[in-house]
Structure formats: C-alpha cells, structure tokens
Amino acid sequence: MACLVTHRLQCxxxxxxxxxxxxxxxxAWVAAVWxxxxxxxxxxxAQRGVEATCPSWEDNPQCICYTRGGxxxxxxxxxxxxxxxxxxxxxxxxxxxxxxxxxxxxTTLPPGLFTRSSGVASLQVSHSAVRGLAEDSLEGLETSxxxxxxxxxxxxxxxxxxxxxxxxxxxxSLEANNITELQSFVFSKLxxxxxxxxxxxxxxxxxxxxxxxxxxxxxxxxENNDLxxxxxxxxxxxAALRTLRAAWNHVKELDLPADASLAALQELDLSSxxxxxxxxxxxxxxxxxxxxxxxxxxxxxxxxNAFKENPALETLFxxxxxxxxxxxxxxLHNPNxxxxxxxxxNLHNIDGGLFSDLPHLQELVLASNNIREVTxxxxxxxxSLQVLNLEHNAIRFVEEDSLWELPQLHTLLLSHNNLQxxxxxxLKANTALQVLKLDHNRLGKLHEDTFSNNTALTTLHLSHNxxxxxxxxxxxxxxxxxxxxxxxxxxxxxxPAAFSSLAHLxxxxxxxxxxxxxxxxxxxEDTALRQLRVSGNRLTSLHPQLLQGQGSLDQVxxxxxxxxxxxxxxxxxxxxxxxxxxxxxxIVQIQDNVFSNMTHLRRLFLSHNFxxxxxxxxxxxxxxxxxxxxxxxxxxxxxxxxxxxxxxxDTLDLSGNTVSVVxxxxxxxxxxxxxxxxxxxxxAEIEExxxxxxxxxxxxxxxxxxxxxxxxxFLQLTQLRHLDLAGxxxxxxxxxxxAGLPNLESLDLSRCGLAELPDNxxxxxxxxxxxxxAGNKLTHLKAAAFVGLSDLTQLDLSxxxxxxxxxxxxxxxxxxxxxxxxxxxxxxxxxxxxKLEDLRELRAANVLMTEVRPDSLxxxxxxxxxxxxxxxxxxxxxxxxxxxxxxxxSLADNRLEQLPDALFFDLPGALxxxxxxxxxxxxxxxxxxxxxxxxxxxxxxxxxxxxxSVVTSLxxxxxxxxxxxxxxxxxxxxxxxxxxxxLTQLAHLDLSHNQLKVLPPERLRGLGQLVRLNLTYNRLExxxxLPADASxxxxxxxxxxxxxxxxxxxxxxxxALEEVDLSDNFITSIxxxxxxxxxxxxxLDLSHNxxxxxxxxxxxxxxxxxxxxxxHGNSLQCTCEAVDLWAWLLNHPEQVTNPRDLTCELPxxxxxSIG
Length: 1155
Fold this sequence. Notes:
CATH architecture of the domain at 467-577: Alpha-Beta Horseshoe
Keywords: Leucine-rich repeat, Repeat
Number of helices: 9
Protein name: Chaoptin
Number of strands: 70
Pfam family, one: LRR_8
CATH superfamily of the domain at 467-577: Ribonuclease Inhibitor
CATH topology of the domain at 467-577: Leucine-rich repeat, LRR (right-handed beta-alpha superhelix)
Structural class: mainly beta
Radius of gyration: 37 Å
Strand content: 15-25%
Distance between the termini: 70 Å
InterPro entries: Leu-rich_rpt, Leu-rich_rpt_typical-subtyp, LRR_dom_sf
C-alpha cells in the first residue's frame, strides 16, 4: 500500500529524504527491524468508520505522523508530556504508536498519556530505561489496544496491574527486558493469542503463571532465557497452544508427558539447550506435534519409542548432537514425517529399516556423521524422498540397488566420503535426479552407463577424485546438464566429443589434472558454455578447432599449462568472452590477429610466459580490453604503436621483461591507460615524449630498473599521481626533473643511490603527500629541501647517513603525520620534531640512541606510534612520555633490564601495545613502581628473547588489561602460583621456547578468556589438568616437550578446544578417556611420538568433530590389538593426515579376527 505523506516527511518505505526541524526519520536499523517484525492492524482494528488522518505540523511539531494503512505516530526522544498532547491531537484512531529513546530519567510509564486518544491498536515502547508501568498508564486504551510491545527496556516483572483492563489485548511482547520470574495469575483476565518473553532472564515460571490463557494462547516464545526445565505444569491444559519456542535456554530434559494436554501444539523448538536424551514418549503430551527442533543439544540417546505418540510429526531437527545410533523402529509411528535432519552427529549405521516405510519422507539430511555404508532396503517404501544428503561421512560402499525405490529423488549429495566406485546400476531408477555431488571421494573410473538414466541432471560434481579418463559416452545423455565439475582428479585423457551432447552446459571445470592434449571435446554447434577452466594441466598446444561453436563463453582459464604457441583461429569464435587466462605457460609466440574476434574481452592475462615480441597486430580487435598483464615474459621488442587498438585500456603491466628503452613509438596513439607498470624490466632510458600519448596516466611504476638519469622534464604527465622509481641507480637528478608532474601525490625514490638532493627538486610537487627517500646515501639535508611540501603527510628517510642537523629539513612540512628516521646516526630524538604538531607515527629504530631526553616528546601530543627499537637504551627516564597520547611503543632490542618506570608514571591510561623483546630483562616491573600503578589500557605485550626466568603474579598485576602476552624464547623455568590471576581478559598466551618442566593447574588460574595457549619447546614432563578457567581455550600447543603420557581428565575443562598439538613428544600411553568432553576438537596432532597401541575408543569421543588427525612418526605395532585402529583409520581417510606415512612396526601378525 502506498504511503500517504501528510507533513514534513517522505515515507521511509518510499526512500524519502531526512526530516527537517524536529521531525526525525527513523534510523536505518530501527526501520529495518520494525518493517520486518511489526504487524500493522487495519484502521478498523482501532476504530471503524473514522478516516485516517494526521494533524498539521503546527498541532504536532514533535512526533512523526504519516498514514500507512492507518495513522502511524512515532515519537522518538519526545518528552512524555508532549506525547500525551500529540496523541490527543490525532483526530481519529491510531493504528500504530511508537515511543522509543524515552528520557532515561523516566523509569515508570506514567498515567495520562492516552486518556485523550481516540484509541490505539498497536503500541510499542522500546529502547528506554522503563522499569515498570503505572497501574493507570494504559488508561484510554482498554477497548482498542490489540498489540502491546515493551521491548529492550528494563522491566523486572510483568506489569500485571497495568494489563488487567486491556480487554482487547491479543498480542503481548515483553522481549529483551530483565524479567526473572513469572508469578502466578500474572496474565489472568487477558485473552492473549501470542506472548513473547524472548531475551529475558526468566529462570522460574509458577505452575499458575499462565492461568486464564488456556483457551486463547496460541504462541508462546521463551527463547534466550535461563530456564533449566520446561514449565510443564504451567503448560498443562493450554488447549489452544500451537507454537512453543524455548531455544537458547538450559533445559536438560525433554518432558511433555501425556497429561500435559497440549493437544493443539504443532511446533516445539528446544534448539540450543542441554538435553542429553530423548526418553520414551517424551513428547506424548503433544499428540498433534508437526515440527520438533532439538538442534544443538547434547543428545546421545534416543529411545525407540521417543516419538511413538506423535503420528502427525512432519519435521524433525536433531542436527548437531552426539547421537551414535538409532533403533530401527525410531520412526515406526511417524508415517507423515517429511523432513529429518540428523546432520553433525556420530551415526555409524543406518541400515535395518530405520528410514524404511516412511511414505511421505521428502528430505533426509545425514551429513557429517560416520556412516560406513548404504545397503539394500535402507529406504524401502520411502519412495517420496527428494533430497538425500550424505556428505562428510565415511561411506565406502553403496549397494547398487539401495536407491532403486527413490524415483522422486532430485538431489543426492555424497561428497566427502570414501567411495572408490559407483556401480553402473546404482542410479538407474533415479530418473528425476537433478543435482548429484560425488566430489572428494576416491573414484578411479566412471562406467559408460553410470548416468545413462539420469537425463534430468543439471549439476554434477566429480572433482577431487582419482579419475584418469573421461570416456566418450559417459555424459552422452545428460543433455540438460548445466554444471560439470571434474577438477583435481588425475585425468590424462578426454575422449573426442566427450561433452559434445551437453548443449545446456554453462560451467565446465577441468583444472588441476594431467591432461596433455585436448581434442574437439565440445559441441561444434553454438552452446551455452560460459565458464571453461582447464588450468593446471599439461597442455602443450591448443587445437585450432578446440573452441569452435563456443560463442557464449564468458571466462576461459588456460593458465598453468605448457602451451608454447597461441595460433590464429583458436579464439576465433569467442566474441562474448570477457576474461582470458593464459598466464604461467611456456608461450613464446602469439600469432597475429589471434584475439581479433574477441571484441568484448575485458581482461587478458599473459604473465609468466616467454613471449619475446609484441607485434603490431598481436592485440588487434581488443577494443574493449581494460586490463592487460604481460609481466614476467622475455619481451625485448615492442613494435611501433603495438597497443594502438586498445582504446579502452586502463591497466598495462610490462614488468619483468627486457625493455631497455621506452621508445616514443611504443605509445603513439593516445590511450586511456591510468596504470602502467614496468618494474624490473631493465629500463635504462625513457625517450623524451615516450609517454606523452598516455595523458590519463595516474600511476607509473618503474622500480628496480637501470635508470641513471632523470633529465629535465623527463616526464610530462600532468595527471600522474603516483610515481615509483625505487631501486634505480640514479646519478643525474636535477631541480627540474619533476617539473612535468605538477599533480604528483606519492613519490618513491628509495634505494636509488642518491648522495644529495638537488635544490628546488620538489618545487613543482606541491601536491605531494607521500615521499620515500629510504636506503640512499644521503648525509645531509638542507633546511629548505622540502620547502613547499605543505601537504606532505608521509616521509621515509630511513637507512641513510643523516645526522641530527638534517631533522630541521622537516620543519617546513607542518602536516606531516608519519616520519621514519630509522637507520640514520642521529643518536637521539631530534628536538626539532617538536614543531610537527600533527605527527602521529615516528620511527627512529637503529639510530645509535643511548638516551631519551625527558623533553624530547613533550610537544608531540598527537603521537600515537613510536618505534625506538634496536638502539642502546639502558633506561627511559620518568617524564619522557608525559602528556603523550602514545598507543603503540616499540623498545625492542635495547639494553633494558625491566619495563621503564616511565611507562607507569607517564602513560598509564593510553598505551595499548608494547614491544620490549630482545632486551636483557631480568624482571618485568621495577621496585619503584607503586603497587597500585598499572598500564590499564595495555592490551598487547611482546617480551620475547629476554632473560626472564620467573613469571610472578605481582608483576603481571600491573598489566590487568592484557589480551595478548608473548614471553617466548626466554629462560623461564618457573611460573608462580596465580601468576596470571589478574589477567582476566587475556586471550593469547605464548610461553613457548622456555625451560618449563611443570605447569600445575593453579599456575593458569584466572585465565577465563584464554583462547590460545602455546607451550611448545619447553621441558614439560606431564600435562597437568587444565583449570576450570580454561573453558574458552580453543588452541593448545604442547608439542616438542618431553611428555610421556596423556592422562584422563587433563583436558576435561577445555570443552571449547578446537586444536591440540602434542607432536614431537615421547608419549607412549593415552588414556581411553583423554579426549572426552571435547565436542569441537577438529585438529589433533599426535605425530612423532612413541605410541605403539592406540585403541579406537580413544578417538571415538571426538570422531564427529575431528577433521585432521596426525599419527605418523609413531611406532604402531602390527598386532591383533591394532586391527580395530586400522579399521577405524580405513573408515576415516579424510580425517587422517599423511596416511601414506602411517606404518606399523614388527611383530607382524598374519591372522587376526576382525569383529
């Protein structure tokens, strides 16, 4: 419905402009949320027969009023006294009234706001400090209010007294408040249809809390609260309840017994709770249940009678749990079920009739389990199945007739399994199949009849297998196929006309195979092919007829092959192609007119080849080309005006060639090139006027060439913004060398061997913002060297031989923000820098500095980064940083024995990052620092390669805000008890490469936010149990120690662990329960230890989550005890890293019984 604009406002749904005066348009995020969530009652819902109109601007100057199916009144940040008056000025009923951002001093919604109104159908009070509603606060709305929302406020209880008289209230939302309890009879006398209590802190619901709503309440939302159990007694006899949402709580048991009498309940959502088992008849009290969601719980057990009393069940979501097995009769009493999601569990077996006799089943998701095989009758009498997802399992075998009873199957996902063969009869009955994914298996060949009956296929994934041949007829009948993925196989041979029948094919990927020649494998008639990828093969040539009939191709990848010649005609029919990749080949010659018909080509990549000559007709026809990459070839000859036809060219890269002279006839015709790169091209000379035809050039890079002179006006490019001349042996630079570049903004003259700067060199460069003179031979800068560079913000003078007096040269650059003086013998911080009031970053590393004078930084109040590393400092006196805004400081590689006291006295609330590595530290904090002094803002401390031997709690208590602490490569042999207890925000702790032998649990206590712990290369003899504080730890590296065993419970408290590295130890024993309670563990490295026997039971707790397991480099024994382990490894090939390096040692056993 169109929005009627009444005054000062364009409707926000029609893209109106911002309001003028006091009228403020809703912020974008509020508008988006409300437009999606609000139900707008019709005007009749407020009061029938009254025309919907807004008062004039003069009558209502503060609230926003417009009509949208009724009068809408929005009052953001409007005083409540004015709200009452403006509500009363609306001549008719209000469909929607919104009060938000109410004065924070108002904690109770007062009476009298609505007594003058003609009725309000929907009222929203939100994003305010309201803690309660006065008993008469809603007076005047008794017979009109249908929707009431009080959200994102601070209600501590349901405002029962204020609600009692609202006889027409049907929808109540109290979302995102501070309600902790629902008391008895709190909704009595109401006839609510929906009740939203999401996002509170409710932990207790009285048995009589919902009394009075038995016959009216249809939807109840209790999501994101603190419930430990379902309020079963309160829900009893809720005869009208259809939807119950209680996700994101702490419910431990699903219990809706038969006497719950929830006959109308159709949808129950208990996702993201703590349910561990589903007992017999757990939801018997909801016989009409159609949808049950238990996603992301901890369910390990499901009774075979769990859903016996729910014959109407249609959708069941049990994904992301820990279910290992289901009885064959689990769904025996659910004939109407349509969708079952059991993804991300630990199922091993699905045979025995579990999914049989489900005539209405349409979608079955079994991805990310450990299913080993699919056998005959698995889906018997479940003929309606349309989507079957078996990705990311351990399937080695699919019986050939297992899918024959699924005639409606249109999506079959079998990727990331262990299939070595697909029977030619497997898919014969699946004539409706449209999407088939078999990628990431071990398929060695495809039978000619494998897909003969699957003529409806549109998408087929066969990548990442071991296919060696593509036969002529294997895809012959797939005439509707649109996507075919064959990349990352071992394909050597593609039969002629292998894809010629695929008239609708749009994407064909053959990259990263072993193809040496490509015959005419596509249809020669016009096809729909738009993307062709043949990168990373062994092609040596391209057949002239290879792409015949491929006029629809948009993108072609032929890079990373061995192609030596590109012959005329091969791309003759690619008139619509926009992108062509030929980089990383062996191309020596490109015949003339090869690209002449590619009139729509935008990007051409020819880099990393051996092309020697660019001829006059090499790029004929490429009138639409925007980007041309010719870098890293062997180009020595560019014929006259070779680029003349590239009339839209924007970017040209000729780097890494041998263009000794940039000649005037290289660019005769005017071209719109904006970026030209000639890096490392051996350029020794640029002829005068050679680039004049490139009047639009903005970026020119000539770094690492052989230019020795910048002659007067050597370039006349008025639009050039960025010039890079780094790494040229410039000997002749004079005051007019840059005169032809008036708009230059960045100039790099680093590593050019400059011994001095000519006077007035930058006189014509008044727009220069960034200048690098690093790595030259400058010994002195005149005071006027940078005169006129008033806009300069970045200056790099590092690695020259400049003395202290040269610092005066920068005084004429008042806007300088970044200055680098590192590698110059200034011996101290230049006092002259005090004049640079805008300086933000100063780098003065390796300047032979022996002291910091207290007044050096006094005037640099805006300085945020200071690097004075690699100097000779033994101390930094107090007062050195006084008044500074420093956030990042590097004192690395000096001669300090502790953190300077100046940090605590001068920078207590500013410094965020400190690097003090490479100093001979003997302690972190000195004795003169007061006990209560701290660097409260410091988040990152790098203190590596020091002489620290002990970590104490007293020292770290001065650094309470640390989030990252690195103490690696020290001499630390002891961590005091409670050393880290004050670091409650620490997320990353690196203690690697030290001398720790023990690390008892109390040493790590207090690290409740720790995410990454690195203990590699110490001398730890055992891994003690991590403390309870380790609940957020995700990465643990204890590799390269001297551990000999992994005990039960060592990782018990680290349930969030995702990566554990225990490689390169001396582990011989791993307890069966070592990895229990690690549901997220994805990477486990046990390589290079001394494990001889590893029982599969050790790995079973992490079997579902594990993505990478490293066991190579152990001494696994070839005994009958190891048979189960080898069987487990065989069934989980994708999870095992370097499986070919996994061997077992003698004694060999010839006969073992596999149970």
